[in-house]
């Protein structure tokens, strides 16, 4: 095998193909992804900066949003620059260990994003159903603890992926039909038994994604019940409006995720391979791109703080 250590059947490097079947459109696809990445970096870094510097946003809801933004920024940065190098400069080789590191961070941060969305749903549940206890339940210490627990959950569930991949023998070449190192895309190059990889991948998806989605659903069922019991239509509207941004973020994250999950496992030969890869890229890149826009448009407090910051900076420049 080209580029492999024949004694251990472990490749020195892999070759990432990009999106096979769409080579002629690579330049246009890359420009689109580059534009999305720029929006994601500017939007998410802007939100983190705004929340950290504006005291009016020093509340649990916005702390979780800052954590989501940091996760989104890290997630897309873990693969987009490398992907653009593939499209623009044909730099397709990636070291075996670098591939494992990229795979770990992509999957870990994806699980982290799901966990933060779950925490944000719980935050909205406490704020609407127990408003008088909100500040005592979601203290800064509690936020740090649940944030760290969510991070450790993702790390502990994803670490076995890297060991499972590292232990496999590779004798089916070193060409990965993808734009980044995805767990099963790498495992398919092995001539060993990958059933454990597939089963563990399914278990991890259930224990992270399905569990988080269940918690989000239960939170919103309780929120709807509480809101419908409010006597004032204005109070109901105000309560629901505080959830719209989060609901949009959940839809943006989970719809591509579930579509990618089911097409990858059950699509078989009915869905072209390049469609699988294209959707897998959108699944990782779309939430970081759209979440800052959604929260910037839908959240009144963020819009107000952005305007204050803009006019403050404009005033400083005028004085100069």
Work out the number of β strands.
Answer: 5
Which percent bin holds the helix content? over 70%
> What is the residue-averaged pLDDT?
88
Measured distance between first and last alpha carbons: 65 Å
Q: What composes the largest sheet?
A: 3 strands, mixed
Number of helices: 12
From the spread of the alpha carbons, the general shape counts as globular
Low-confidence stretches: 1-7
Main features:
320 residues; mainly alpha; 3-stranded mixed sheet; two-stranded antiparallel ribbon; 12 helices
Explain briefly what this protein structure is.
The protein is mostly helical and about 325 residues long. The protein has helices spanning about 25-55, 60-75, 80-90, 95-130, 135, 140-165, 185, 195-230, 235-240, 245-265, 275-300, 300-320, and strands at about 5, 10, 15, 95, 175.
Topology:
Blueprint: E1 4-5, E2 10-11, E3 13-16, H1 26-53, H2 60-77, H3 80-89, E4 93-95, H4 96-129, H5 134-137, H6 140-166, E5 175-176, H7 183-187, H8 195-228, H9 233-241, H10 244-266, H11 273-298, H12 300-319
Parallel strand pairs: 3-5
Antiparallel strand pairs: 1-2, 3-4
Helix pairs in contact: 1-2, 1-3, 1-11, 2-4, 2-11, 4-6, 4-8, 4-10, 6-8, 10-11
